[in-house]
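Hey, quick one: can you model this chain's 3D structure?
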Amino acid sequence: MVSLFWMFEITTNPDSNTLNDQNKRHTLNVNTEKIANKDMVTSMKSSTCVFPDVNIFEPSVVAIAGLNLSTLQCDEFYLPDLTYIQDTTIIVNTSKVQQYHGNGTFQHCKYRHIWRNDSDDNSYIYSDWSDPFTDKIQLPRNSEFVRVQCWNIRSELVSNTYMCLVPRKEEFDGLYLASLKKREVESAPKETLNVVMIVMDSLQRNQLIRGCNETYAYLMNTLKSFDLTMHSQLAKNTFPNFMPLFTDHFEHEIDRWWNKSLPMDAYDMIWYAFEKAGYRTTYAESSDWGAFHWQRKGFIQPFSRFYPRPLDLALNDDKSLGPLSKYCAGSQLHLNFRLNYIGRLLDTFSDKPVFAVGMMSKETHDDQSYAKYFDEHLLNFYKWMRAKGHLNRTLVVALSDHGTRWGKFRDSVNGHFESRTPFTILTFPEWFLKKYPDVAENLRINTKRLTSHFDTHATLLDLLYFKSDYPPPLPPNRYGLSLLKEIPWNRTCKEASIPAEFCMCGYREVEDIDIHSELSKHLSHLLIKSINEMIENVCAQYKLTQTIRVVKVIFQGSDTQKQQGDALYKVTVKADPGGAIFEAYKEVTGIQNPWTFANYIFRLNSYKGQSDCAQHPLIKPMCYCKNLLG
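Sure thing. Here's the predicted structure for all 630 residues.
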């Protein structure tokens, strides 16, 4: 008998070609000279784990990488912002009023607050409208999120602007002061740095280098950042990759005591440790497929002190925001909205430690070639932080949750590699690296060592109690190693807790199997059988229509046991109804056990509109609802 494992993945459809149509006039301009540390993107000879030697600028991949796109600006697609915020005052921009309403047609503006609904994390509450104003108006103390609208004398809407503020919330000052003092007295860490995490959803490292060429060059050449070139993902999509990053657990470990009908307040999120140590915290993410809210209840209490989810929900519900509302919050980019919010937090608490996460869910989730639209905006944020002095007291972690999961990059010659290699880039203050040359050397070495987000988690906690005189009040790391210390040169995927199906160490496709062979037929039918056994009773049963490919693969450092006669196969099939395309890795061993199923089956094409009847997020990608059958 043989044993076998499968894996699957969640997808959504990309938007229409609205953005593509804007850029047909542009020509391809790849500036490879701005790519720093080119030796880091080849096979890593300093480690026993060797990643496949993949050409980032493979011509067929460059052709689909969106390098002809120009920076996305939202103000040309929507109503102008006739107001702006200064401290806690909303001010009418008289020059813009003159520009757009110089003939005296402007009437007045009003605002209303956007509040969290304390009984439902997935809804919000609007206040009543303010009194009308034509010049400026003072906001109440502790205002956070407001919507400002302006009208002309014909009562037509002429401006619709969302704003966010970061009040100091003085009522918590004593708590934070005591927490910082407790950390200082009981642990005596040598340094206290802010932590800012900028997360790009679904963006593989290679496409970051291609599409965000200017930002990457600035990080590597100017800020002397550390690019973890052998960083591996740990699971299929955002949530199960966020669990190692933010909780130091695999998703299946949490599922032993939690299910999606329960609130998530019992999760041991990493920012709770920072909050307990006296840090102001925020988590800012778009709402419609939020990592902690998609088909989940969210939280009873806001899970960070500064919690802009009500604003994101209001933005998501506003259907008047124009043709690019997925990327634009009116005349402002969603990306800049979140970055500016983090910037306000850094400005407000320039004398206090901050832990901030900005999750950019919409920008590259459906199409990673859109990265170029946002390159200049990301670059400008780094330059702003540097000019304001924030980089001098902050660790900035630029990262993604996982690589591309479906579509043109997944189908490319580099698709398998780019589907399993997210990026993580660490930017430390220059003085910090000079003061601690041992840490700087370890970080340099670790850029060419096998790493994962378990290590990112361990690094953040190590920094929180950096070189403490006493043991930190934290549980031991379950899986990860701090990047502030040297990662072993001979580390394997098993030792790094990287599941076999995501291991890139020595990965090589060695033999295509005849799709008409008995082995191919057997594995293909078995894959469909396993899917049919997993799906809910509201889903139709699949029938195999095509074996697309069966290939034998080898890799080193996995957590699978290699014995004589063992083999690993990658199988891609097509099935009806719905023309679903699935891919699975199957380990066939000589062990005398029944076939067993574990891990994931990947869905490689869109299932939008096919699986609305399915309730469980893991079942949706594999479901074709019975009520759609003719």
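One thing worth noting: The CA atoms of residues 566 and 589 lie 4 Å apart.
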